[in-house]
Amino acid sequence: xxxxxxxxxxxxxxxxxxxxxxxxxxxxxxxxxxxxxxxxxxxxxxxxxxxxxxxxxxxxxxxxxxxxxxxxxxxxxxxxxxxxxxxxxxxxxx
Length: 94
Fold this sequence. Notes:
Blueprint (H helix, E strand, L loop, with lengths): L10 H7 L14 H8 L3 H9 L6 H11 L3 H16 L7
Helix pairs in contact: 4-5
């Protein structure tokens, strides 16, 4: 069994405290290479998905939420923040 990266553990408390409000902010704390590998994705494809969050499947999003120990609604809320801001032309990382 592959050991889960300990950096996933910082996400839930940061979401709960309001310090992290967007999906892409997760990758300030966990390298996207780690998450891509854990999902079985190539990093190049994962980068495309990060820039077009609406292309993630629900299964992929829920798996990321599971890695971070956050529930399905919370991961969807983080994705919706990025999705709404990308539609409005705002920076998705804030």
